[in-house]
Amino acid sequence: MAYSLGLTFYNLSNRRDAGQAVDRPPRPLGRLVWLHAPNAEVARSMLELARRLIDEDGLPVLLTCPAEIAPRAGLILQRPPADTPAEARAFLDHWAPEIALFSEGELRPALLHEANERKLPVLMVAGRMPYILRERDGWYPGLMRGLLATFRHVLTIDEASARAFRKAGASLSAVEVTGKMEEESAALPHLEAEREALARQLATRPVWLAASLPEAEEAAAITAHRAALRLAHRLLLIIVPEDPARAEPLAARMAEAEGWTVARRSEDQEPDTETEVYIADNAQEFGLWYRLAPITFMGGSLSGQGCIRDPLEPAALGSAILYGPRPGLFGTTFGRLGAARAARAVGSPTDLAEALGDLLSPDRAARLAQAAWAVTSDGAEVTDKVHLLIRNITDGE
Fold first, then answer.
1. Which family does it belong to (predicted)?
2. Which of 290-303 are b and which e, b meaning 16 or more Cβ less than 10 Å from the residue's Cβ?
3. Options 1.10.10.10, 3.40.1190.10, 3.40.50.11720, 3.20.20.70; which CATH number does 26-182+379-394 get?
4. Cα dist. 97→30, 35, 67, 93, 323 in Å?
5. What is the pTM assigned to this prediction?
6. 148: which residues sit within 8 A by CB, 6+ positions away?
7. Can you tell me the distance from the alpha carbon of 276 to that of 138, in angstroms, rounded to the nearest whole number?
8. Calpha distance 330→326 (Å, rounded)
């Protein structure tokens, strides 16, 4: 009774979303697995699962996510439908998935209710904390408890998350602590011939990278590099500006105000033995710079608007990570890296200079990088388990 009342209140509160036009591509023939990720960070683990389903089982996969996701072969990308009864029916009528996997803990009541009415098997994976759509605050008696009771399996990342799901109404027998799922590799591509050529030029020089450096953090990078040069006079700073248009004025500032020898990638200049700052104003070559720089500072995280690049990118390629107090969209990722002692937090330009100086010791940078790499590569056995559950359920076991 409470569940029905809560669902009614919820649907009445969301009538403003009714009637939105949705463009859906044709449904592929045969079986279809539906995965849902509430944000781009969670989508990484769903993308790895999707890759396995596509490559190993030959199944088309529908992934719904409100964030922009780059296309992959065999993967159908859609934004989730408005959470109203009419849109939920239209969505499930069109896609008719064989199984649905939600993640993190996001609950879409209209969609989940319609899925349950159709007896569609629904699983929760990578569960952290159950919640009804963030923008749907309100009092809906019994709604969360009733929705959670419909999940066949609730796989959580730790025991605290499991307790949260049990307390909120998930079946005790359905909840299981499995840990994190494996994520799609964040390792960016590069041209190996280019890397080899630059590595020969740099030889044994110490190198650090400021990735997507915003104008607001240029002074911090200058301060850190100036201090670190006293410890390692052959140190090279590679800067990829957030805004490529900043390359020219930044090069002039560093050459004129600091007296440094500066080279620019876009001018086909090479970082020779005299170069102290190399401005790589091409955002398509991060895979190259992460491989060449043993230390990476994540631009935007210190005094900008929030970290701009995914910290798992350098982590996957063996670069030790420095970051400030503004994680931006990557708070959960930095939390994982911090818990694993796989990244170094700094709170000010002075802290950045001190941390950089400390990591110029190769063994310290290597320990940090190794721990970061381990964060990017764990969870394969959990994804194996989820993959097997999908196979068993879809095969009727």
1. Belongs to the glycosyltransferase group 1 family.
2. bbbbbbbbbbbbbe
3. 3.40.50.11720
4. 10, 10, 21, 9, 41
5. 0.72
6. 107, 130, 154, 165, 168, 169, 170, 171
7. 57
8. 9
Query: Which residue matches tokens 């025991």?
Result: 159
- Positive or negative, the CA dihedral 113, 114, 120, 126 is negative
Instruction: Tell me how far apart the alpha carbons of residues 293 and 120 are, in angstroms, rounded to a whole number.
Output: 49
Check residue 136 and report its DSSP letter. Answer: -
**Residue 136 pLDDT:** 61
Q: For residue range 28-60, what is the model confidence (pLDDT) as tens digits?
A: 999 999 999 999 888 989 999 999 999 999 999
In CATH terms, 192-377 corresponds, of 3.40.50.2000, 1.20.1740.10, 3.30.70.20, 3.40.1790.10, to 3.40.50.2000
Residues 357-388: pLDDT tens digits? 999 999 999 999 999 988 887 788 999 999 99
* pLDDT at residue 135, as a whole number: 63
Q: Which of 274, 201, 212 is nearest to 242 (CA)?
A: 212
Strand ranges (E), 48-98: 61-64, 75-78
User: CA 241 to CA 111: how far, in whole Å?
Assistant: 43
pLDDT digits 0-9 by tens, 324-344: 999 998 888 898 899 889 999
323: burial class by Cβ within 10 Å (0-12, 13-18, 19+)? buried
192-377 has the same fold as 26-182+379-394: yes
Phi, psi (degrees; rounded to nearest 5) at 66: -70, -15
- Mean pLDDT, the chain, rounded, equals 92
Whole-angstrom distance, CA of residue 115 vs CA of residue 91: 10
